[in-house]
Predict the 3D structure of the following.
Amino acid sequence: MTIAICPGHHEAKPGIQIAEFNEHIEAVIWAHFIAQDLGNLGLAIPAGVLRDRLTYLHALHPEFAVEIHFSQAEHFTIKHQCKNAHSVILAEILMGLTNGASSERFQVAPGYYHDDFAYGEDYFLAKAPCTALIFEAPVATATDPNRRAALCSALASSLATMAQNGVSQAYQG
Ligand SMILES: [Zn+2]
């Protein structure tokens, strides 16, 4: 059982940049912490362009993949693969687990590119070779190291619980 944790964006196109905050660099840190908290279950995917991350995932063939992003919203969002019923169910399960493990509040949403269904499904979610989700955290959570550490471990323990409950059965190829 492997849960791949992917940092969103890449060095040349790092996503949101506000003052000291760099979305890609923050996502690399979170991927590392979450994978570390997951122990044998977790693997942080090397940073790189999306195409390379997907190539890595196709070679690795994990049971489950999570990509880390940030937004300027106040709330946390878990985005699922729009056309994958298992991904929708797992997003709901994970939201419930994470809401129990964290004082923060998570919501579930379909993963469309730029949050606009007219652009179609998010490319990572559409092309991942396994059931996949996106975690989107508020930028504000990155400025407090204690909050970040608590969130990463809450996410990791929720993912581990979900994995123990049979995430592999949800794998659709
Ligand atoms: Zn992003």
Observations:
- The pocket of zinc ion is lined by residues 8-9, 15, 23, 69 (CB under 6 Å).
